[in-house]
Design goal:
Distance between the termini: 27 Å
Number of domains: 1
Shape: globular
Helix content: 40-55%
CATH architecture: 3-Layer(aba) Sandwich
Radius of gyration: 18 Å
Number of strands: 11
CATH superfamily: Vaccinia Virus protein VP39
Strand order of the largest sheet: 5-4-3-6-7-9-8
Number of helices: 10
Strand content: 25-35%
Structural class: alpha/beta
Order of helices and strands: EEHEHEHEHEHEHHHEEHEEH
Largest sheet: 7 strands, mixed
C-alpha cells in the first residue's frame, strides 16, 4: 500500500523501475504528478475533460480527483495492459471514487483518436513521447493543456547525438547548458507536430528534474499563431538545435500555483 498526496494505492514498489514491472509505478515521479494537480487547479476556470492515456496504477487520475475535483468534469483513464486496468479499478474502489471516471483498455493513440477530445491530456511514457504526440494533439481542445514527459534525456543532452537528430530533428549540445538546450529541442519538436494541425503550443511551465523533462503547453488555434511559434525556432551558437528560443514559462500562472501551494501548506499546519 502506497500513499501519495491524498491517494492510497496498491502498487509494486521495486528497487529498479523498468518496463518489466507488472504494472508501472515510479515513486520518483511524485513531483511530476503533483505539478499536474497544481497546474490544473490554477489554470482551469471551469470543469475540464481530462485524459490519462498511459495510467499505470491510476495514481495520477486518483490524485487529480481527490486534490482538484472541482476543476474536473470527467477523467478518461486508459492503459493497454489488462493487468493495469484491473489495478486501476481496484485503486479507484480503494479511494471510494465512483463518479467522473471511465476506464479503458486500449493502445494509447487509439484511445485518443476514438475519443471526442479533451481539455487536458497527459502524456507520460517510458522513454520518448514521440509515438503519442500526433494523436494527443489531434484530440486537444482549443485553450486546452498538453502535458508531456520525456525520459530519454541521453538523446536530448547529446550523449547519443544521432538519436537526437533522428527523434527530435535537431543537434544537441553536450556541456553545462545541455539540459536547457535539450528541453528547448523537445519543445520545438512538439510544437512542429502541433503546427501541422494549426495548433500553436506555447509552454506555460517547463523544467528538467532527475531523469526527465516536463512541459505543459497551452493550445491555441490558428495559422497566424503557428507562424509566430515557428519564428521563435532558432539555432544556438549557429549550430546547435534548432531550438525553441521563446519563454519557458508563464510567470503569472506559476505565481498562482505557488500561492495555492502556500495556502495548502498553511492549512496543513493548522
Amino acid at each position: 500500500m502506497i500513499t501519495e498526496g491524498l491517494a492510497k494505492i496498491e502498487a509494486e514498489s521495486p528497487k529498479v523501475v523498468s518496463k518489466q514491472m507488472g504494472v508501472f509505478y515510479n515513486p520518483v515521479m511524485k513531483l511530476n504528478r503533483s505539478m499536474s494537480v497544481y497546474l490544473i487547479n490554477a489554470y482551469f476556470d471551469k470543469p475540464a475533460r481530462i485524459a490519462d492515456p498511459m495510467a499505470g496504477t491510476g495514481i495520477r487520475a486518483i490524485r487529480l480527483l481527490k486534490e482538484a475535483d472541482e476543476k474536473i468534469e470527467s477523467i478518461n483513464v486508459n492503459d493497454h495492459s489488462e493487468k493495469a486496468v484491473e489495478i486501476i479499478k481496484k485503486n479507484l474502489e480503494l479511494n471510494k471514487i465512483k463518479d467522473k471516471t471511465t476506464v479503458n483498455n486500449k493502445d494509447a493513440s487509439i484511445f485518443l483518436l476514438e475519443s471526442s477530445g479533451f481539455d487536458y491530456i497527459d502524456i507520460d511514457p517510458f522513454g520518448t513521447p514521440n509515438p503519442f504526440l500526433d494523436a494527443s494533439i489531434k484530440r486537444l481542445s482549443r485553450n486546452g493543456i498538453l502535458a508531456v514527459t520525456a525520459t530519454d534525456t541521453a538523446a536530448l543532452t547529446g550523449t547519443y547525438e544521432n538519436a537526437c537528430k533522428r527523434k527530435y530533428w535537431a543537434k544537441p549540445l553536450r556541456n553545462y547548458l545541455m539540459h536547457e538546450i535539450g528541453l528547448r529541442i523537445l519543445i520545438r519538436k512538439i510544437q512542429l507536430v502541433g503546427c501541422q494541425y494549426e495548433k500553436a503550443l506555447t509552454p506555460l511551465l517547463s523544467y528538467s528534474k532527475d531523469h526527465y523533462y516536463r512541459i505543459f503547453f497551452k493550445c491555441e488555434k490558428g495559422k497566424a499563431k503557428c507562424d509566430e511559434i515557428i519564428k521563435q525556432h532558432k539555432f544556438f551558437q549557429e549550430k546547435y538545435g534548432p531550438i525553441w528560443a521563446g519563454q519557458l514559462k508563464d510567470s503569472k500562472l506559476i505565481q498562482k500555483m505557488l500561492a495555492m501551494l502556500m495556502l495548502n501548506q498553511q492549512s496543513c499546519l493548522r
